[in-house]
Design goal:
Number of helices: 9
Shape: elongated
Protein name: Probable electron transfer flavoprotein subunit alpha
Order of helices and strands: EEEHEHEHEHEEEEEEHEHEHEHEEH
Strand order of the largest sheet: 7-11-6-1-4-5-12
Keywords: Electron transport, FAD, Flavoprotein, Mitochondrion, Transport
Number of domains: 2
Radius of gyration: 21 Å
Subunit structure: Heterodimer of an alpha and a beta subunit.
CATH architecture of the largest domain: 3-Layer(aba) Sandwich
Subcellular location: Mitochondrion matrix
CATH class of the largest domain: Alpha Beta
GO cellular component, one term: mitochondrial matrix
Oligomer: single chain
Number of strands: 17
Length: 324
């Protein structure tokens, strides 16, 4: 017989989740991050550094309270500004866990926050076993590691495709972050210069249920536009691409799927002219149904495909579009 002793200064406290958004809309990846946080079993406090999404954040299922911070320094989620703010909130409120999505902002904020708190962050978790133990991919997704943290504060980024987005609930309480927290002196020497937003009527790649992706086998941008885009339009699908296709300027780099791009897990993933490099597979192999179209019967993509079609893209894709 044994007893488990816990310090009340740390345990039985809330988890803190940073919610990202654009305009008044919350990023779907943040909804999945809340789902991951709920599996800890503790109350969840949401932190928003963009006041425009505070009311929507309060409606996320599982969120018991929203902390709202405002100020132009937080508008673009600069890690140099957001990380010190999160550090002060975590320390002041004795949170045991901090979760953030594995977005570009998350990948920038989490390591800096880890350095400020002298804590080892856990990146890209795909499963929560308990409050200290998590599963995350290693070796470009070819293996899964079960890791256990000994730190008092758990810092983790969440792979959105591994968790379902949280639903809505009745609005939770919204509180303003204390003035001293919002005006933290960060000694920041970085400033936001500009951003280029790619607007599209298509579903957002990271949260789409259907994705049509093109690779180097399409040869050029003209073929990419002529084959991938009409097929995606017919299926009301998002468009993705391999790094080779992006580097060859077939499409914008925001559409890259893979280890150094977006991680997706749609219900349907159609790979057009994609050989199946390990870096690309790391970003899409969790898709529910994978359809591969390639003229090379030995292409690695067929090893993960549920349906494989061997043949000339210029003949198969028009036929497929016509049938749909």
């Amino acid at each position: 017989m044994f007893k488990r002793l816990f310090s009340t200064s740390r345990y039985l406290r809330d988890s803190l989740v940073l919610i990202e958004g654009s305009g008044t809309q919350i990023n779907p990846a943040s909804l999945s991050t809340v789902t991951a946080a709920t599996q800890i079993g503790e109350p969840i406090t949401a932190l928003v550094v963009d006041p425009k999404i505070a009311e929507e954040a309060a409606k996320i299922s599982g969120v018991s309270k929203v902390l709202k911070a405002g100020g132009p320094q937080y508008e673009h989620y600069l890690a140099e500004e957001v990380s010190p703010l999160v550090q002060q909130i975590l320390t002041k409120n004795k949170f045991t866990h901090f979760f953030i999505s594995g977005s570009s902002a998350g990948k920038s904020i989490l390591p800096r926050l880890g350095a400020l708190l002298d804590v080892q962050p856990l990146s890209d978790i795909t499963k929560v076993i308990d409050g200290k133990t998590f599963v995350r991919p290693i070796y470009a997704g070819n293996a899964l590691a079960t890791v256990r943290s000994k730190d008092e504060i758990i810092l983790a980024s969440v792979r959105a495709s591994a968790f379902t987005p949280a639903e809505k609930q009745e609005a939770a309480v919204i509180e303003d972050v204390a003035v001293e927290d919002s005006n933290a002196d960060t000694s920041n020497r970085t400033e936001f210069v500009s951003e280029e937003l790619v607007s599209s009527e298509r579903p957002e790649l990271g949260s789409a249920t259907r994705v049509v992706a093109g690779g180097r086998g399409l040869k050029n941008k003209e073929a990419f536009d002529a084959l991938v885009e009409p097929l995606a339009t017919k299926l009301n699908a998002a468009i993705g691409a391999t790094r080779a296709a992006v580097d060859a300027k077939f499409c914008d780099n925001s559409l890259q799927v893979g280890q150094t791009g977006k991680i997706v897990a749609p219900e349907l993933y159609i790979a057009v002219g994609i050989s199946g490099a390990i870096q690309h597979l790391a970003g899409m192999k969790d898709s529910k149904v994978i359809v591969a179209i390639n003229k090379d019967p030995e292409a690695a993509i067929f090893n993960v495909a549920d349906i494989g079609i061997v043949g000339d893209l210029n003949e198969i894709i028009p036929q497929l579009i016509e049938k749909i």
